[in-house]
Specification:
Elements (H helix, E strand, L loop, with lengths): L1 E7 L10 H15 L5 E5 L3 E6 L4 H8 L7 E8 L4 H12 L6 E8 L8 H15 L4 E2 L6 E7 L4 E9 L11 E5 L5 H11 L3 E8 L6 H18 L2 E7 L1 H10 L5 H20 L3 E3 L12 H8 L6 E2 L7 H10 L3 H4 L6 H4 L11 H8 L4 H10 L2 E5 L10
Parallel strand pairs: 5-6, 5-7, 9-10, 9-12, 10-11, 12-13
Antiparallel strand pairs: 1-3, 1-4, 2-3, 4-8, 7-8, 11-14
Helix pairs in contact: 3-4, 5-6, 7-8, 8-9, 8-14
This protein binds adenosine-5'-triphosphate and magnesium ion.
Length: about 400
């Protein structure tokens, strides 16, 4: 018997026309996620089978629980013999290491020509277990131990446990988006949720040295590193925002600082998105959270771009966002106390219902186009998650 991991795709199979495309990308993503392990991967329409020569099954499963598109993971055994007595003996052998009082055998036949039907296989194997293992009973309603048998064309799979996968679509199947990534709690969660829907992300970070520190930047790189565990390597585009922010601060009425600053961020993000062939912007805005996230503010800020903006946490409460951040391991990094470029130029009374005409009028006070072009021209790109110091090895 060989130990084997079986992966089920779930939601993918509803996309009938694209199924081969989805499976190919999932297969690539699984290969990348397991690149540090010695494995062989075989796939067919419904499943993927992973064999490992180095026995790191727990680590492999831990990696697979972070790959979007996987709905179920089973660690089991492959038997190259379909004789029912041999199956029974092997099941009993495997169960000797597990303690349980009640059980149920669940059989599936993908090969319908097998001489016994599913019910008969379950009954026979159940009989073997009752005869060979002391003090156990069948309970079909609430068994302590489920025993799965799959009869396939040339072999049989035996497994005892199903591990829930992370779900969603394989990252990359829906194209690319640009995530506006700050050091806060919301934007990494937004990036995770976008990846879950199959969007490959690159990220954009606005820094304002010397008003923001290297620590603040490293925090963002670490957040990108954590996100890369789910979506593979991630590029971080770093834009120096200092000149633009200082110009805004010097020339524009302070109640409009944030509105105009965010309009500038959107303009720059749109330019970078076009350059990298991203179809959407993604950010961590949440309705009502701060003055710049009222509906009227969002309308006035969004006006500078025609690219769609996805706001995955728009309707989440802060506590709901925090729950996801904890689950995906970004929370502890997000709450490190390094200042962000938005927090240092915050006015006492930001406008809650900004007017578009005023924005347009105030923006004439600065030569923002050349400042934006300069910032875009000089921007830095850092790749996270492939062979550099941010690579996540486990
Ligand atoms: P918090 O979790 O504290 O709310 P935040 O990052 O969400 O932090 P906001 O001021 O609410 O901060 O900003 C809204 C969104 O704008 C962010 O989620 C992020 O997508 C984007 N953003 C803000 N600041 C930056 C920045 N310095 N670089 C890139 N994107 C930013
Ligand atoms: Mg926020």
């Amino acid at each position: 018997m060989e130990k084997i991991i079986i992966i089920k795709y779930g939601e993918l199979t509803t996309k009938k026309d694209n199924i081969n495309y989805f499976i190919r990308i999932l297969n690539d993503n699984v290969k990348k996620a397991l690149s540090l392990f010695n494995v062989s991967i075989v796939y067919d329409k419904g499943r993927m089978f992973i064999e490992s020569n180095d026995g790191n099954f727990d680590q492999i499963v831990s990696k697979l629980t972070k790959v979007f598109g996987i709905h179920e993971i089973m660690v089991g055994y492959k038997l190259n013999n379909r004789n029912i007595d041999i199956i029974g003996n092997n099941v009993v052998d495997l169960l000797k290491n597990i303690s349980f009082d009640t059980f149920k055998v669940i059989t599936k036949r993908s090969d319908k020509t097998y001489e016994l039907d599913s019910m008969e296989v379950s009954r026979k194997i159940g009989g073997y277990i009752l005869k060979n293992i002391k003090d156990v009973k069948v309970d079909v309603h609430q068994p302590e131990q489920e025993i799965y048998i799959e009869i396939r064309k040339n072999d049989v799979y035996i497994y005892f446990e199903k591990i829930k996968g992370i779900g969603g679509y394989p990252v990359g199947t829906l194209g690319k988006g640009l995530l506006m990534l700050s050091g806060g709690i919301d934007s990494p969660v937004a990036g995770y949720l976008a990846m879950k829907r199959g969007i490959k992300i690159e990220t954009l970070y606005f820094e304002s040295p010397p008003h923001t520190s290297l620590n603040a930047k490293n925090k963002v790189l670490e957040l990108a590193n954590i996100l890369s565990r789910y979506g593979g390597s991630i590029k971080v585009h770093v834009i120096n925002f200092t000149n633009i922010q200082e110009e805004i601060y010097k020339n524009i009425p302070h109640e409009y600082l944030i509105t105009i600053m965010r309009r500038m961020m959107y303009r720059i993000s749109t330019k970078i998105a076009h350059r990298i062939n991203a179809h959407v912007l993604i950010n961590g805005e949440s309705v009502g959270q701060v003055a710049s996230q009222t509906l009227t503010s969002m309308e006035v800020i969004n006006e500078v771009t025609t690219i769609p903006v996805i706001r995955p946490v728009a309707c989440f409460d802060k506590l709901e966002i925090i729950d996801v951040a904890k689950k995906i391991d970004t929370y502890e990094t997000s709450i490190l106390p390094y200042e962000d470029c938005c927090t240092i130029f915050v006015p006492d009374h930001p406008v809650i219902n900004p007017q578009l005409e005023k924005c347009v009028e105030y923006e004439k006070l600065i030569d923002y186009e050349s400042l934006i072009n300069e910032a875009v021209k000089n921007h830095e790109v850092i790749k996270i998650g492939e062979g550099n110091k941010y690579q996540d090895l486990l």
